[in-house]
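Ticket #422: bound-state structure for N-(iminomethyl)-L-glutamic acid.
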Amino acid sequence: MKRDIDLLLESAAQVVTVDPARMRSGGEDEEARAVGAISGGAVAIDRGRILDVGRTDRLRDLYRAGRTIDASGRVVTPGLIDPHTHLVFGGQRHLEFGLRMKGADYQEILASGGGIHSTVAATRKTPVDELVDGAAKRLEKMLEFGVTTVEVKSGYGLDVETELKILETVRCLAERCPQRLVPTYLGAHVIPKEFADRRQAYVDLMIGEMIPKIAREQLAVACDVFLDNGAYTRDETEAILTAAVAAGLRPKVHAGQFSDQGGPELIAGLNGLSADHLEQISEAGIEAMAQAGVVANLLPGAAYSLRDHFPDGRRLIDRGVDVAVATDDNPGSSRTENLPLMASMAVTRMGLTCAEGMKAVTTNAAKALDLAGEIGAIIPGMAADLAVFDIPDFRALFYHFGMNHTAMVIAKGTIAIEEERR
Ligand code: NIG
Ligand code: FE
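RESOLUTION: The complex was predicted; output attached.
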């Protein structure tokens, strides 16, 4: 007797499981094995979970599906995971981009009251429903690229009211969009203008009022700080993240974008989730991250858009650090929803192999969000978040770059995008 199930995806050119248990066997070549690829694979889905994965003939014998989907000539992967975005903001900064492309400097623009400050001013003025609509559009574009989980930071409010408004926007989006959203509090993005001469008072406001309130109302699961010149110092970062940990939020940090100030060592000492950016990092920082299992979230879009050098992903991986890749989607330094393109840049510009590029937007991104075991791999028991790409091999996701190859997206067991076969 066959078991009744909701959905069977079958006959895929490859099912890229990213399951460590499958990385020693199967697959046609060494790199396909490194992502646990199954040629001619199938995935059985029932009640929002992955029930089984393997060769199509075996799964066909075992299950009778309410719906069977022919994935021949296509690649099935875990739904992609974007572990670092600033999706909720008001206004736009294309004029600033134009100025930067004519030679203006990102940090100088920020220091003179523009940049992040201009988005803060616009976000404070934007009503919640407009913030929701703007971010919903970005999430829809992300879904079109196969992204089923998105981390979303606050950080363009920098006052109690607007930081809460942003996190409530995320909560509202989580109810209406198909993806899983992971909210992070980034009240410590920059020092708000009105606190320019009394920065400690703003740090105290975050520690005394904002962090406890946000943790109590479960509006965020993590806390981030921008540690760099023109933003927060190492000591301020430590104080803010220590308070966040005490309130039950997981710490993470924007570190080394412009200068190395010991963020990786600090976050490792706090048992943090990730250190992000890392254009600048010391050997000691890398060692600390590797020892503590802190994920490096690399952000190729920021290096690209700021005409900065790309962080050295190869060096991190060779020292034992897990590397994830994110869009960093934000109005200033990285305005993109295209996560596969970011992974392609990580492969071509940061020294990752294609297998490492795939892990960077699946298993390692899940680890960066403390969701390993739930998402990021195609393993029985995990959430049925899947992407189907119209490519013959997973490497084509990075090789045939800048394009949208998505044919189908399944989020929490439900078909969220379905393109007709041509
Ligand atoms: O990750 N580095 C700090 N924050 C963002 C940029 C924010 C902005 O320019 O609006 C980043 O690059
Ligand atoms: Fe960022």
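RESOLUTION NOTES: The domain at 3-78+377-418 is CATH 2.30.40.10 (Urease, subunit C; domain 1).
TICKET STATUS: resolved
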